[in-house]
Amino acid sequence: MSFLSVYNLPVDIMENEDKIRAQGHFILKTCQRTLVVTSKTPEICLSLRSQMKNIIQGPEGYHFLMEVICGLKSRLLGETEIVSQFKEAFEKFLAQDVRDPIVTLTLQKLFKDAKKIRHDYLSDVGQYSYAGMTKKLITNRDHGPLILIVGSGQLAKDLLKVMSRKFNVHLLARNEEKVAELRESFEFKYLNWENFKEASQYQVIVNTVGSDETLFGQSFFKTWLLLHGHRGLFIDLGSPSCIDTNYDLTNGVIRLDDIFQMSDQLNEEKREKIQEAQGGISELVMTRWALLKKKIEKDNLRPDHYEQTLSTI
Prior knowledge:
Elements: E1 5-9, H1 17-22, E2 26-29, E3 34-38, E4 55-57, H2 58-69, H3 81-94, H4 101-121, H5 130-140, E5 146-150, H6 154-163, E6 168-173, H7 176-183, E7 189-192, E8 204-207, H8 218-228, E9 233-236, E10 253-254, H9 256-269, H10 271-299
Parallel strand pairs: 5-6, 5-8, 6-7, 8-9, 9-10
Antiparallel strand pairs: 1-3, 1-4, 2-3
């Protein structure tokens, strides 16, 4: 019995997202891919008919999800931010009016299994996170303790976790509700979005905002470099990037691609750990799949109660 289908889609290819969620399916969107997880027949939406070749089913689908949540499918191998993205997407899934019960059970077990793999094989791969790499870049350059983080999402939260104790962090963001949530756990000075122009005063800036809109253009960087020269460090973690400048690494402007290249060297050093984790995943998936199948058959879990025809989409 194949009760799991995973769509591994390119970024932003999916249409009718709200209607797909309304059918009870799980959706995860990252900077690298969009995942749709379902227990129904593979063709869940007419707009995805051309993506049938990108469906992974059965235990192979669960194995793929394990590799994704453990960071083994990320450009930054072993990165940990993907776990937070999964959890955030799962919370959104649980808030849906209709939820596929088989997918709910599968994802609950996925979190448990991923935690075991990370503990057994990836516990010392902490540098494989965007926050960890950013801290390493700032520390290696021996910058002062003052840092400006732009944004208030999950990545900003991850940065605060690793930096708030060692650095004097200022946060520039426009979502005051999220800022209030962050203040419950971390200490930082908050700059309202109306004070955006003050960003150029900071020697070290870490941007976490992803947007098609340009937030930091050439004129900003000219002013910033005049103020800070070779001591300046601007790290852009946004995807899509919201900076537009011809300045690069030699000018202290570091983009995601630069971080990926730096991490490639670390990846080689940790290749053995990654291979061990992949082996552990393969063994665990065989056991988990058998248990899931038994549980689903025993409880007679079926998503029939929310069945909808494709013609409604």
